[in-house]
Amino acid sequence: MSDHIRAASLLALITLAASAHAETVTVKSPDGRNVVAVDSDKLTYTVSRDGKRIIEPSPLGLNLDIGAIGPGAKLSGHAERSVKDTYDIVVGKARSAPDHFNESQLAFAANGKAPQFQLLVRAYDNGVALRYVVPEQQGLSSFKVMSEATQFNFAKDYECWGANMGRFDTSFEAEYDKIKSSGIRNFHNYIAPLVCKTGAGATTFAIAESDVKDYPGLFLSGRGDAGLGVMVTLPPRFDNNRDFRFRQTVSAQVALKGQGFQTPWRVVMLGEAPGDLTASSLIPTLAAPSQIKDTSWIKPSKTSWDWWNDWAVNVPNAGVNTATYKAFIDFSKEMKLDDILIDEGWSVGSDVEPNPKADVTRAKPEMDMPALMQYAKSKGVGVWLWVQWQQLDNQMDAAFKQYAAWGIKGVKVDFMNRNDQEMVDWYHKVLSKAAEHKLMVDLHGAYPPNGLNRTWPNYITQEGVLGAENNKWSARITATHNVTLPFTRMILGPMDYTPGGFHNTTPPTFAHRNHEPQVMTTRGQAVAMYVVYDSPFQMVSDSPAAYKNADGSWADGAEFIQTVPTSWDETRILSGDIGQYIVSARRKGDTWYIGAMTNEAGRTLKVPLSFLGKGSYHARLLQDGADASHLKSSDAKVNATQSITLKLAPSGGAVAVIKP
């Protein structure tokens, strides 16, 4: 039983004299700026920051098959606690994160057929969160969740950014379009996060979730009553109704099984500016702590990759065969990359479809896996394998045992494209099983991050992002999209955008193609992604030849990619705005890396260096050059009292490496 459920269960024994009547329970963040107030009679809540209402009175509750948890529930007791702690991050945007909050645990008596339940309310300096808990109780062994009544009612017509998938079966990949909150309809299916600004120079907030287990992931829809705000919509269980067009179905089946039940946290992230959400670790902080005791085998890395460049290596009959992957191993070694990723097609019956005849424990005859693994080992290069999720599910124990025997470092699992209760449970299963064999995991066709990478730190990165693969068949990956992602999708957790495209061009000359795709952004933006984008397992996606000049020397930016880390000791967002530009600063040891990216408008950015320590530093700058495929470099002596100036071309970027 989790600490949350155990603590909440104890609340059933707490009866305060003052709680026999309705009251408003208020929880403030440690710095006093964020306030959640719960009306225990109406079962509504509000959220305020600096005394200004962000979320107006909004309903809470769960609709169960045995009765509704909601208005009319009687408060039987509440207790408060404060926690001030930190926890270590295995890989990610920082080495550690604070876990500092105030909490109120409200207990409600059974009401008719509805069971007794608790509401946990937390306030952090960077956001607030609520969750429902149903403890063990006499006569209750199971129930079904039909829907959730949680809403987020807005104080005014906010300007928001969100990804409306329009359906439940989805790869969770889309642009985060700007929309007024009044334009969000009840038939929309927005995924987390929904990011909103409350006004010029005022609070930015985002609606998200954390710690999802034994429950479906959320979608956000309009309220349906012409009011401003959104409500939680849950996908149906897949076994209950395989046609996701219908919503009036069971969303979760709950068996208490000797312990209580808790929903995910419903989260409102809060900050002064959009960049405050980007730097925040609130989502993993709310999640369950690591279930892996020994994490020493979980390592950040960069990898070469076959699929994006269409197996473009200089060997006869390049494709899914031993010679091709030996060439990728040689490239990774020369490029100082840690790994290679062997994508679709390596195993018997490999396919994007389930294919019951597939065997993910055996390589195709063209792939001499023992010889390939021995060759990789001799070069000091690790190997990852791609696998379709249903094919893996059919043979999971045998497959992971075989991969561990081969010496595989990790698996990229693809095409789940769901976040119903069954799929959420499957994520926990595959990550747990992988951890038993010391395998890291990269999930594609994945639902948005919800802190699972804290609970299972071998979950080192994931998709659920409209990334660079789309350059192969569309013109959707614009500079505006690229500088929207850090303030939207990436605030939840790492994203496998798959950067590294070195066939740089401009939007008017861009043409999508499958073989060695182009990107419509500059070389400066290409290298800046390795600083700006979070992904401890980071792709170097283009062909080996793309990183070389005709004379065999390294192309502009290639040597930067060779040395840039993928996991950090500290992250700061120095400036930026959604869809406009971003300047990020990351520290690894005593070295700072600055990455800057802009949309289709070129701009000159003055970057103060006040985050530096005392003394003099050496700065190496790489900025956009004469055309989209070139950089210009410069060096300077700097200190904390100075600034550097970065000139970004349209759809461009820049990086700086600052060392003592």
UniProtKB/TrEMBL annotation:
Residue span(s) of domain Glycosyl-hydrolase 97 catalytic: 307-465
Residues annotated as signal peptide: 1-22
Gene Ontology terms for molecular function: carbohydrate binding; hydrolase activity, acting on glycosyl bonds
InterPro entries named in the record: Aldolase_TIM, GH, GH-type_carb-bd, GH97_C, GH97_catalytic, GH97_N, Glyco_hydro_b, Glycosyl_hydrolase_97
Domain of life of the source: Bacteria
Pfam families with a match to the protein in the record: GH97_C, GH97_N, Glyco_hydro_97
Keyword Signal: yes
Residues in Glycosyl-hydrolase 97 C-terminal oligomerisation domain copies: 567-659
UniProt keyword terms in alphabetical order: Glycosidase, Hydrolase, Signal
Glycosyl-hydrolase 97 N-terminal domain residues: 27-289
Protein's name in the database: Glycoside hydrolase family 97 protein
Species whose genome carries this gene: Duganella radicis
